[in-house]
Design a protein that fits this description.
- The chain has one domain.
- It has three helices and five strands.
- Strands 1, 2, 3, 4 and 5 form a five-stranded mixed β-sheet that branches.
Length: 130
């Protein structure tokens, strides 16, 4: 009886401690950005990029997402000399779903025919973890 009790406690301890060390499968997070201004007809789109070492929180939101928008805004202000741009960030763990969203947003700007769409390659601008 004593031997069974000790084995049971050992098995329970192993299960308890292994539950704390198990990590969920980390999925990469993809994002793209859009920069537009009311004063200019040029709209900037970044490529869909994978961001290293980033995980969505338990609600499915990107932590520090406003920092990524400011990275793009600062790039447009200081590198391209375009002030007064508002930047939006789109993110997902599914790359195909995000690419569809990017084409949908681009089509909305193309449909208006008053905007000039300019792409930003990943060599020009890339998002970095804040």
């Amino acid at each position: 009886m004593r031997y069974i009790r000790i084995c049971l406690i050992a098995v329970m301890a192993v299960m308890l401690f292994s539950a704390f060390t198990m990590k969920g499968k980390e999925k990469p997070v993809y994002m793209f950005g859009v920069g537009a201004s009311f004063k200019d007809s040029v709209v900037y789109f970044t490529e869909v990029q994978v961001v290293d070492s980033v995980q969505l929180d338990h609600d499915g939101f990107l932590p520090h997402r406003e920092s990524y928008a400011y990275q793009m805004k600062n790039y447009l202000e200081y590198e391209r000399s375009h002030t007064d741009y508002t930047c939006a960030i789109y993110f997902s763990e599914n790359k195909n779903k995000l690419e569809k969203e990017a084409s949908k947003v681009k089509k909305q700007y193309e449909k208006a025919k008053t905007f000039v769409i300019e792409g930003l390659s990943q060599s020009d601008f890339s998002f970095k973890k804040p």
